[in-house]
Amino acid sequence: MAALSPVGSRRARRMKAGAVYVALAALTLVFLFPLLWIISLSLKTRLQMVSLSPLAPFWPTLENYAAVFSRADFGGAFVNSVIVSAFAVSLSLLVGVPAAYAMARFSFLGRNTLFFALLAMRMLPPIAVLVPMYVLFATLGLTTTRTAVVLAYTTFSLPLVVWIMRGFFEDLPRELEESAWVDGATRLRAFLHIVLPLIKPGLVAACILCLQLAWNDFLFAAVLTSNATRTLPVLMAAFSGGDTGVDWGGMTASGVLVILPVILFSFLAQRHLVAGLSSGAVKG
Amino acid sequence: MGGFGEATATGGAVTTRSSTRRGGRSAASWSDRHFHRLAVLPTTVVMLLVFGIPLLFSAWLSLEAWSPDQRLFGGRFAGWDNYRDLLTDPEFVSSLTLTLFYTAATVTTELLAGLGIALLLNIDLPWIGLFRTLLVVPMMITPVVAASCWKLLLDPDHGAINALIGQHIVWLGRPGTALLSVCVVNVWQNAPYVAILLLAGLRSLPHEPLEAASIDGASRWQVFWHVTLPLLKPYILVALLLRMIFEFRAFDNIYVLTSGGPANATMTLSMFTYLASFVRFDMSLAAASSWLMLLISLVMCLLFMAVVRRRDAT
Fold this sequence. Notes:
Largest sheet of chain B: 2 strands, antiparallel
Oligomer: heterodimer
Number of helices of chain A: 14
Structural class of chain B: mainly alpha
Order of helices and strands of chain B: EHHHEEHHHHHHHHHHH
Radius of gyration of chain A: 24 Å
Number of strands of chain A: 1
Number of helices of chain B: 14
Distance between the termini of chain B: 12 Å
């Protein structure tokens, strides 16, 4: 839908288009400036950061990145983040996809209740779940383990999976599996061999959006991990927490490395973003 | 969401035919009849484990005087004492009002900024897709990294903000500017989210009313105010409620930027509960405060459900 009015001379329309471009470019600059800033800082030496004016040009260096890669705690946190996110997402897909299918295709007692409970699980404040969870996990001896973090992450990734996948299942014509049922296939067979292969794009979308949330989480990981099991966001917070002698180079370089995967993911998931977003699923 | 009852098969309507044809496969027909139950069972179990049981436990905890050095059920029953302590604690009450004020301020700004961005992004021009992609980036990035980045931007000595305006302001060191900074960071990160939601709404609006209005000689402003905005209202409501729900529980940015300070100027309820539980280890008080948070969120959650259902029904 073209909001630029079709009436008016060509010249006037061009002027309007130009004004829109200028406005958009300015907006983009404002919104991306913090990112450009952190990238530029990560390419400066310690001396350049303190002696040069923040906006002055400089000769870029990769020494901060070399320093980050040589640190043991960054590598450890990276591995923890990957493990925890991967397991949380796999668990949620395994558990949530069949439920989403059942909720999209069959009407049964308690379906609306289940759905509302899932919605509440996604939307209620995580700190409210974390307080009792911490006490219970401590009793079970699970705090500071990756298992605890994976279980905690299902509180947001499971509802997200069910919500997104339910939408995809509802959009799939039901004749496909109905004809398989008529031909004698069991519900399970029809689901595994006919529906699941068709729903792959949905699985990819749910997977990416969940990975992003798990990767970005700070609160659960901050409470439920130790130095050995902490994830990247927890390490980042530790970087910027110290008031004395914050290591700007290490902090900015590792920050850029942390957000690089999510930005790539977001470009990959762009097509599905709106579907996930309008369901209220993404972010928090 | 919505459309719950329509067009969904009831339990075992289709199985009758296959079971008469291949009678005797009772195991298969049993699993077919109970397929939906088996399919939702794992989700139900996980939900109870990570959500149901913790919340019930927290409700119980909030009625106890329990400390971490006691056995799990070794606390003393305290009734409503924790809740009374909270509601008479000036720090909690100011945290509650601060959270409501903060939520109102950020959500309003996010909606206005998001609507503006969405209207710009809705104009069909070459390369508009590039801007749509780029403007979404802030909402994607890890909140802790975003906040660390802003902390450096706001640094009094070497930060870009002070360099740009040519002044020396200790942004995060004074109550007023600290709260303002926290709000700005959250608006920066979440206005794109609102923009994407509203852009989706704008793209799905019917063309006819807009064209009819402009043919009838309505000015662009009149079309926007009397046609576009009312049509967009359901989407605005959804964005409003979602942002309220998520800003109400804001934590990550605030933790990194100010940790609730200075002088409790940015002490949101999440931050208050976090400090009560994981710094002072007063778990019972934290459970009570988190239950008050839960109740407020639940109201917003129910409103959200109602709005979405009504939107999908029309």
